[in-house]
Design goal:
By secondary structure, the protein is α+β, with helices and mostly antiparallel strands. It is 34% helix and 25% strand. The chain is built from 5 helices and 9 strands. The protein has a 7-stranded mixed sheet. The protein has a two-stranded antiparallel ribbon with strand order 6-7. A hairpin with a 5-residue loop joins strand 8 and strand 9. The chain starts with 13 loop residues before the first strand and ends with a helix.
Length: 154
């Protein structure tokens, strides 16, 4: 499981969204940048804080031409409930088998908890930023938004 780094082409993963749609990263190629954030679990305090921080900044991401996509091992039904209870305007992908996490090389923290890592991927599918911090939920949003805004200025 090699970790994806800045400058690498993002793997073209396909996942099942909370509404049952199949979503592929290639769906956005040439159209939008992607902020792909991996988080451990729906409903946990830090994960909820992170999800709501992405929600609160979603309009800023959209104005900068980026789509936000969250990924965890939770079921599609759990994602549906999480989206509904927190009014999340973006897609959550179910990664029950861990294949998306593995494709990006997202490690476990202390060998136990699924890692919290955010990738910013440009319109051409190149990873432009990677941020990993298990307990700094809001920094994931701030760093991703800063990079997305830089991409618009290029």
């Amino acid at each position: 499981m090699a970790a994806i780094r800045v400058g690498d082409r993002a793997p073209d993963i396909v996942g099942l969204a909370q509404d049952g749609r199949r979503v592929a990263l290639s769906d956005f190629r040439g159209i939008k940048s992607i902020v792909l954030f991996f988080y451990p679990k729906n409903g946990s305090p830090i994960c909820t804080k992170e999800a709501c921080s992405f929600r609160d900044a979603y309009k800023d991401f959209a104005q900068a031409g980026a789509e936000v996509i969250g990924v965890s091992a939770d079921s599609r039904e759990s994602h549906q409930a999480f989206v509904g209870s927190h009014r999340l305007p973006y897609t959550l992908l179910s990664d029950k088998d861990g294949s998306i996490r593995k494709a990006f090389g997202v490690p476990k923290t202390l060998g136990l908890l699924p890692g919290r890592v955010t990738f910013v991927i440009d319109k051409e599918g190149i990873v432009r930023h990677v941020f990993s911090a298990q307990f700094a939920a809001e920094r994931h949003v701030a760093e991703a938004l800063a990079i997305v805004r830089q991409l618009v200025g290029e």
